[in-house]
Amino acid sequence: MANADKTFYLTTPIYYPSDKLHIGHAYTTVAGDAMARYKRLRGYRVHFLTGTDEHGQKIERRARERGMEPKPFVDGIVAGIQELWRKLDISYDDFIRTTEDRHKRVVEKIFARLVEQGDIYKGEYEGWYCTPCESFFLERQLVNGNCPDCGRPVELLKEECYFFRLGKYVDRLLQYYEENPDFIQPESRRNEMINNFIKPGLEDLAVSRTTFDWGIRVPGDPKHVIYVWIDALTNYITALGYGSDDDSLFKTFWPADVHLVGKEIVRFHTIYWPIMLMALDLPLPKKVFGHGWFQTKEGKMSKSKGNVIDPVVLIERYGLDALRYWLLRDTPFGSDGVFTPESFVERTNFDLANDLGNLLNRTVAMMEKYTGGVVPAYEGHVTAYDASLEAAAREAIEAMEAAMEKMEFSVALAAIWQFIGRTNKYIDETQPWLLAKDEASAPQLKSVLYHLAESLRIISILIQPFLTRAPKEMWRQLGIEQGPLIEWDTVRTFGTLPAGTRVVKGDPLFPRLDVEAEVQY
Ligand code: ME8
């Protein structure tokens, strides 16, 4: 049961609604969902936030290209994103849009306060401007004197601008890193932040723009629009009602337990964001986890290469659980991954259809054949195999719990699948079909079938953060739709499944795929 003392606040990045989202965005959100589900199962009161980052020049330009005003343009895309999260069974508690009043009002307030405190001041931005890219660069960023992005010539421009004095907070930031060695995960990203960004010196950050309109205006100086990252990062507290009439969620959940982000935006979350929070006198998030990137065999996904992987296509063809499983199992969280149809199909066939699906299928079929479809009574360890299977269950639970605390999703799944493998091996070791031939072996046979059903019950509980459909089907076939039998803490008590439970034969949990046909598809 949720206990008010145990809270867990986690966030995904808020995505740009400039286009349809792809498998990379789905990855972060599914990972966040797995963590949120896990913490809920462990009795935490969870707040899982996602949303959309709707302002800025890029979005404005996209809308204009389609002959639309920015707001109706983003409304359409945001509806599609919410539909995608429904298809992926994302259990978010809140979805924030930066165009909402609850967000805008507070961003204005924060900006005004930072100006008043002297953390933000008005000055002049001088930089090399690339007109086609509409971006400023520092001299040292230029490549042969040209734009580092497109290679075209740049010109020296001056623009009135507000600046954030980041430098003032650097010592405190480094001290926070030191006192909280887990703040930036994985650790390699922490060194990258210190060596590549902080040590060379933090220049004051330009936090307003005057070259476009689509954004939150600087209070009292409306020709300036607040820099989209200042606007965006603030979502993590505006969504909790910080600075509003009702800040009860903020009081309950801040500071965040983890901001989940892709590696390319770790810098914003571990330098700019903590400094903003320090300036506001607020506690800093406990952890920022920067995961790796997915590519395809052709490299980075891009429209021009035509290699953007659409998660909806995968769900429709292979089912949601297969996608969620592949995303979190195939690549260690934190490393880069490559999507290949082969690895997707192999994982689905070997791990899901063979290892898990067949285990359920065989168990239910043997119970129908040997015990009239009814779970026998638990009699403890009848054989040494039983004791070893129970020990394997305990090990899997411990390994999974430890991995989840570190957000090592692939390690957690490997631990569960090791137990699934062990349970399959137990069938080979005990050979129930031979036990069934000999009246004198009836106690052993019953014990084997009990151990199989109970192991499946435990597995069905452990997989819940990752797979959202299979557990329900497993409970149906195992005849355990009742609440208490699927509570987390019962996994530690082998023998919880009551005698007399009636199993029900069903369809295979996962269809087997034909590798060759699928790879061509
Ligand atoms: O950066 N592989 O939004 P965004 C893995 N609005 N993850 C990927 C990925 C890939 N190929 N491509 C994208 C923004 N992602 C800002 C964030 S937060 C205050 C503002 C994921 O729509 C990854 O999590 O560009 C990355 O950080 C995020 O999508 C970027 O989404």
TrEMBL record:
Keyword field: Aminoacyl-tRNA synthetase, ATP-binding, Cytoplasm, Ligase, Metal-binding, Nucleotide-binding, Protein biosynthesis, RNA-binding, tRNA-binding, Zinc
Compartments it resides in: Cytoplasm
Coiled-coil positions: none
Domain of life: Bacteria
MF-aspect GO terms: methionine-tRNA ligase activity
Motif ('KMSKS' region): 300-304
Catalytic activity: tRNA(Met) + L-methionine + ATP = L-methionyl-tRNA(Met) + AMP + diphosphate
Principal location: cytoplasm
Sequence motif: 'HIGH' region, positions: 15-25
Cofactor binding notes: Binds 1 zinc ion per subunit.
Chain sites annotated for binding Zn(2+): C130, C133, C147, C150
Obligatory cofactor(s): Zn(2+)
Class of this enzyme: ligase
EC number per UniProt: 6.1.1.10
Family of the protein in this entry: Belongs to the class-I aminoacyl-tRNA synthetase family. MetG type 2A subfamily.
Record's subunit section: Homodimer.
Protein task: Is required not only for elongation of protein synthesis but also for the initiation of all mRNA translation through initiator tRNA(fMet) aminoacylation.
The name this protein goes by in its record: Methionine--tRNA ligase
Species of provenance: Thermobacillus xylanilyticus
Gene: txxe 1765-metS
Included range, full protein: 1 to 521 of 664
